[in-house]
Amino acid sequence: MAANTISHFSPFTQEFYQSLFDVADGENIKTCLQCANCSGVCPLGYVMDFPPGRMISWLRAGIFDEVVESDSVWMCVSCYACVEVCPKNIPLTPGLMTRAKEEMLLAGNIPTELQSALEFSQRYGNPLGESPRKRAEWANGLEPEVPIMRKLKRPVDVLWFVGDYPSYHPRVQQTTRAFFKLLNALGIDFGILGPEESSDGDSQRLAGERGLFEVLAEKNGKAFSKYEFGEIITTDPHAYNALKNEYPALGIKYPVRHYTEFLVEHLDGIKALLKGNGEMRVTYHDPCYLGRANSVYDAPRELLEAIPGIELVEMEHNRTTSLCCGGGGGGMWLDGFQWEKSGARLSDWRVKEAADTQADVLAVACPYEPPRFEDAAKTVAGADKLIVKDIIELLADAL
Amino acid sequence: MTNIVVLAKLVPDLVEELEIAESGTALDMEWLRLIINEFDNHATEQAIILKERSGGEVTVIAPEAEGANEMLYTIAAKGADRLIMLKGDFEDGINNHALARAFAGAAKELKPDLVLTGVQANDDLDGSVGPLVAEYLGMSYVGYISGVSVSGETVVARKEYPGGLIAEMEVTLPAVLGIQAGEEPPRYVAISKVRQMMKTATIDEQEVGDLDASGGAMVQRMYVPEAAERAEMLEGDEEEVAARLVEIFKEAGLV
Ligand code: SF4
Ligand code: SF4
Fold this sequence. Notes:
The complex is a heterodimer. By secondary structure, chain A is α/β, with parallel strands linked by helices. In chain A, 44% of the residues lie in helices and 9% in strands. Chain A has helices spanning 11-19, 37-41, 52-60, 65-69, 81-85, 92-106, 112-124, 149-152, 164-168, 170-185, 202-206, 210-225, 237-246, 259-265, 267-273, 298-306, 335-342, 346-356, 369-379, 391-397; strands at residues 156-161, 190-192, 229-234, 256-258, 280-284, 310-313, 361-364, 387-390. In chain A, β3 (229-234), α13 and β4 (256-258) form a beta-alpha-beta unit. In chain A, α10 packs across α20 (391-397), α14 (259-265) packs across α16 (298-306) and α18 (346-356) crosses α19 (369-379). Chain A is globular. In chain B, α3 crosses α4 (129-137). Chain B is an alpha/beta fold. Chain B is built from six helices and eleven strands. The radius of gyration of chain B is 23 Å and the shape is globular. Chain B has helices spanning 38-54, 68-78, 96-110, 129-137, 191-200, 238-251, and strands at 3-7, 10-12, 34-36, 57-63, 82-87, 114-118, 140-151, 154-161, 165-172, 175-179, 203-207. Chain A binds chain B through residues 102, 105-106, 108, 110, 112, 115, 118-119, 122-124, 129-131, 133, 209-212, 214-215, and chain B through 15-16, 35, 185, 187-195. The complex binds iron/sulfur cluster (2 copies). One iron/sulfur cluster (SF4) binds next to α2 and α3 of chain A. One iron/sulfur cluster (SF4) is lined by residues 42-45, 52, 76-82, 92-93, 97 of chain A.
């Protein structure tokens, strides 16, 4: 096993290398075989100056300054594909790549697009730059009224953490309203935080802004602590990941489930309500932060298979090998930058695979995806008829 | 070594809808969210670029307001050396004449070589701050600047004109420049660095005493633009609409 300290390292490189051990399983980095599986599987590794494997070899040679000078680490979409294939179980996504982005950010080497999303998150508590007071406006005019905890003044079974894109993005708001319909149909006792909710901060953290993540988490923690509820559920795998795996270290500990896990528990009740919505061939895209990062693969498929008339088909890359939509780790706010560097959009590749299955519908379970895949479907040859729907919407349509 | 002073203020953030106070002469401050004036943000960036390139010291002066502390610490984290907050009755009613006198009073003490401020702000009701400050300090002023370099006793400033024209002007120091855009967009500074500054940097609070607003405009009434009822919606199919349009043009003497 390699030593903890390497004498020819500069203090900066030394400190950086050492900090990688702080992440869970971080010390595994010493055992890297240089097999390059990680760099090979990385969807944008071919345009990175330093894909994970190479970054490790340079680090071992004591050279890290070049890594910070190159802006190619901003191509990393934190998709966990490298972690999945690493034979030495090295936490490349949460460790090496995120730490490298943190150093880039501290050095001020950050693309302008990403900068605005971070500034917005800091200022308004959401990366879209919308007014925090309008966080619950998606619920305007809905019947019955959407229960907001501050007004409800009583404990609930379920606190629904709505999230950024589900609250503000016009396309994703449709999914949010469908989920509201579904919860009501199932008679779930729930409430939302409304304007008291802030961004979960996970994608900002993975984009290197750890301090901002902590500020946002503290705000949410404070809001949670005001109310009584049995558990938290969310439609956003990024929020799910933050609440489940990152918030506890900051002392914010609540049971949390992604909506697919939650609904599967109510499968019998759901089945009784489902009438179907015609024959459909459906393929399912595993979101990185539900699949690889949190190993939830079956619940979404069980929900889809419960809908009468749906035939579920798999894409070439599925489950652990699912292809990232390109939105993670700050990718949501780096589309222009990444397209300039690579001339490719990850969502285009995914939509092409979906179209190849001859599916009518590409089903998703993450709020980043409907807008990304719908845009892609407009330009990818053969995908113009592909419909993109969240599983929530397919369920609500079949009620 | 250039002694640079930046004048920065917070202005209403237009992400929230603006409301008018009960007085009917000002915005309702209660619901207002404040943000650094975008042009002042650029002036700050330009000052820090100058310091990084040619040395010098950067002092930022801002009037007290909700969020002014945070703004100053953020600028310090970007590289400013000294922070001054002006304390006084800056609530509603203050105009740029009063603010500029307060700015000038504080800046004079610092004997600046160069004063940078945003060329304009969304709440400028009585002219912009820059030229007023220059007047009160007895310095020359050039506005709409998008790039500055210092050489000895003078600076070369790039001034933007309409129609895509740019002039390079040599300005003798000391001078006040109204910044339209910094050479680079305002940089991002990690929150951890801002938090660090909150612990280590100090804000020098200075009382400004009575504000002198003379010469400025006084607001008599503030209101949302009222819709005039001059529009006539033409109903009917294409033929009818076209015929009616021709009639209207004739009535107006256009055809
Ligand atoms: S997380 Fe994904 S994008 Fe980032 S290095 Fe690993 S494989 Fe590449
Ligand atoms: S896959 Fe793992 S062991 Fe192989 S090069 Fe990458 S980090 Fe090293």
